[in-house]
Design a protein that fits this description.
four-stranded antiparallel sheet; alpha+beta
């Protein structure tokens, strides 16, 4: 009996440790896509993205989604970074909603609504068109006419270079491509017209082991230009949505449900507005004026940056003066087109907000009480 009690005392710490481990939540991960037994329809995007943006019908595209609260000049595939994985270069977004529109479907730059997203059912490390040239790497959201079908590959209606406007691209210096903070490295949007001429389309997606793999370029060119090793990460699945993608050690934790290509039997519902506080016309006017002023300040800074870069380019010019003037004039035209486009999108968004916000109730004015009148005297009655 004493031996049994002594053995129980010795085993007690291990039993407590195992019990505590069993009660802690675990992130369920797996190295490859979820089993095909659990398949959801595109309606999952309707539900999960409603709190973060607006669903609406756009002519020629059907139901599309536009994110709330993105900054001026925002373009898809900017708030995050590239990680080299077993799927090739993979985009890791910092937005909580980034698991969906940067790995499924396609983005379109709409003249009135800005960037809008069309749902899709195939997961990819990133659906972008790639360009590379001496010292530069650029990418742009792949247009919707560039579809993918398992076992076939791309079903191309038109070449992406013909479908994409220069402002769709994000360019960074090649030496900065693998950095965690890309927000400080993007070249001015107006300079894209020059960088597109100096780079080549290197887009190459293939199918390997039932997976979409980005083979546009490997990590070797980045290692050569930086002199540092670019580690390869492993993509694993999380069972939880509604959270930003994460990098843990040599793993990238992503949420990527299997999505049925058939259209859902319902339409999106927009989430309730995050605030139900009624706003007055004066408040709406103040807010819109503030937004316009901030946009003008942003555009002024962009113009000043472009002027400074062009002046520096003229000082170290290695080409003819005429060629530099032609190139810089194209960049200035692109800057003015950017200004016009951003102002149009801001006006459209302000109009949409005015239509969706609850009107402020005006205080009811008290109605004056009706005056009491002396009833007429009946004939024959004398006043007392």
């Amino acid at each position: 009996m004493k031996r049994f009690i002594l053995l129980l005392i010795l085993l007690m710490p291990f039993m407590v440790a195992n019990l505590s481990c069993a009660t802690q939540p675990r992130v369920r991960t797996r190295p490859y896509p979820p089993p095909s037994g659990l398949i959801m329809d595109i309606g999952i995007f309707y539900d999960e993205l409603a709190p973060y943006g607006r669903w609406f019908e756009a002519d020629g595209y059907g139901w599309v989604w536009s994110p709330y609260d993105v900054p001026f000049g925002w373009r898809p595939y900017t708030n995050g970074n590239w990680v080299y994985t077993d799927y090739g270069w993979t985009w890791v977004s910092r937005w909580r909603w980034g698991w969906a529109p940067f790995h499924y479907g396609r983005w379109v730059s709409h003249a009135r609504h800005g960037w809008i997203w069309l749902p899709g059912n195939v997961w990819g490390p990133a659906w972008v068109v790639w360009r590379r040239g001496p010292g530069w790497i650029g990418w742009a959201p792949m247009p919707p006419h560039h579809g993918w079908r398992g076992g076939v590959g791309f079903e191309i209606v038109s070449e992406p270079d013909r479908m994409l406007e220069p402002h769709s691209y994000n360019f960074v210096p090649e030496r900065n491509f693998a950095e965690r903070d890309l927000s400080r490295r993007f070249e001015l949007e107006a300079r894209n017209v020059t960088l597109i001429r100096e780079t080549q389309n290197v887009t190459n997606y293939t199918m390997a082991n039932n997976r979409v793999v980005n083979r546009s370029f490997t990590n070797e060119p980045i290692e050569r230009v930086t002199g540092r090793t670019v580690p390869q990460h492993r993509v694993v699945d999380s069972s939880a949505g509604n959270q930003a993608e994460q990098i843990r050690g040599n793993e990238v934790i992503v949420y990527r449900p299997n999505v049925n290509p058939n259209p859902p039997q319902r339409t999106p519902r927009n989430a309730e507005p995050r605030t139900q506080r009624p706003v007055t016309s004066a408040e709406i006017e103040r807010r819109e004026n503030t937004e316009r002023r901030r946009l003008e300040e942003y555009q002024t800074r962009s113009r000043q940056t472009l002027d400074r870069q062009q002046q520096e380019e003229q000082k170290r010019a290695q080409t003819s003066r005429d060629e530099i003037q032609r190139r810089q004039e194209a960049e200035r035209r692109a800057m003015e087109e950017q200004v016009r486009r951003e102002q149009q999108v801001l006006r459209s968004r302000q109009e949409t907000k005015r239509q969706s916000e609850p009107p402020a109730r005006t205080q009811e004015t008290k109605r004056p009480k009706p005056e009491r009148t002396t009833p007429p005297r009946k004939p024959g009655n004398k006043p007392s």
